[in-house]
Amino acid sequence: LEGGCQGPIAAPAALDGALTLRGLVAALDGATIVRGALSGPPADAEQIGTALADDLIARGAGEILSALAT
After folding, report:
1. pTM score, whole prediction
2. pLDDT mean across residues, the chain
């Protein structure tokens, strides 16, 4: 997502047979929060992370991150 250290971004992962990755991007004021989660085989970790990032961006995280960059 390339959010740097400017805003609230989280991506905790859990491994219980499958890899579950959760993601969150929030506006600085907390008014807008975009959350998502994807699961899959641990061997597909990079693809899971990329797909989750794409999903978050498509649902509004891109606008939040753009606002932080200005």
Report:
1. 0.86
2. 91
Contacts of residue 59, defined as CB under 8 A and 6 or more positions apart, other chains included, come to 34, 36
Q: Where are the alpha helices (DSSP H) in 1-70?
A: 45-56, 62-69
CB atoms within 10 A of CB 23: 21
* pLDDT tens, residue by residue, 38-67: 999 999 999 999 999 999 999 999 999 888
On whether the CB atoms of residues 9 and 25 are closer than 8 A, the answer is: yes
33-40 vs 9-10, strand pairing mode: unpaired
Per the listing, tokens 């969150």 go with 24
Token duo for residue 33? 């929060």
